[in-house]
Amino acid sequence: MKKVTALLVSCLLGQIAFGAVYELRTYVTNPGKLDNLNARFRDHTVGLFKKHGIESVGYWIPTDGESSKNTLIYVIRHESRDAAKASWKAFGSDPAWKKVAKESQVDGKILAKRPESVYMIATDFSSDWKNEKAEKDDVFELRIYKAAKGKLGKLDARFRDHTIRIFEKHEMKSVAYWHPTDEPESKDTLIYIIKHDNREAAKKSWTNFLADPEWEKAAKKSGVGRLAKPPAATYMKPTDYSAIR
């Protein structure tokens, strides 16, 4: 019991707070505007988020394809869903933000479309992430799993009891695990981020993980079956202003 209590206290003080509401946001820019978006976040937005009670957790740029040129993915934290609503309202009406938004787009609109937003809560097996020494080759991986109908609990149990430990065995570091808060995704979706030393290490780790007899046994006995669709995976690099690195 003491160990459980200590773990909960640690998590509440760390990056992952159970009971808080997280928000996964994805921004897609117009051509050539990603640097402008990063500058706006680096120099203004992150500070204004803090001013209005929005905690920045991590900011990343995908490493592959067109998204590496036009996409920013980030996670922020709110005290509650009501707090999120109040914070966004205050942020959007802040004269400082209005000034920054206007001045940053004098050469053209930065975003190509409205940001995508997913509200999430941390799972009971989510990590208490602590930054280590950041290396330039470090790569993060955002993965989204959709369980077959009625199987999300079994998928959670497999991660809680087996997968995370086997990830660590194969040098994949767990950053955080979340469930969306809103239906229908709240009934079938697991979202998580892991970290690899580099892209080649990621490839090797996944190969070794999938071939591990312990994983094969756990997967077979878990009752999860096949996922509703193949996992969506995005490799990412942290921005220079990201809290998680």
* Structural class by helix and strand composition: alpha+beta
CATH architecture classification name of the largest domain? 2-Layer Sandwich
Q: For the largest sheet, list the strands in their spatial order.
A: 1-3-2-8-5-7-6-4
The share of residues in helices is: 25-40%
Order of helices and strands: HEHEHEHHEEHEEHHE
Question: DSSP helix count?
Answer: 8
How much β-strand is present in the residues?
25-35%
Averaged pLDDT: 93
Question: What labels describe this entry?
Answer:
27% strand; 8 helices; alpha+beta; 245 residues; eight-stranded antiparallel beta barrel; 2 domains; Alpha-Beta Plaits; disordered N terminus
Describe the structure concisely for a colleague.
The protein has eight helices and eight strands. With 245 residues, the protein is of the alpha+beta class.
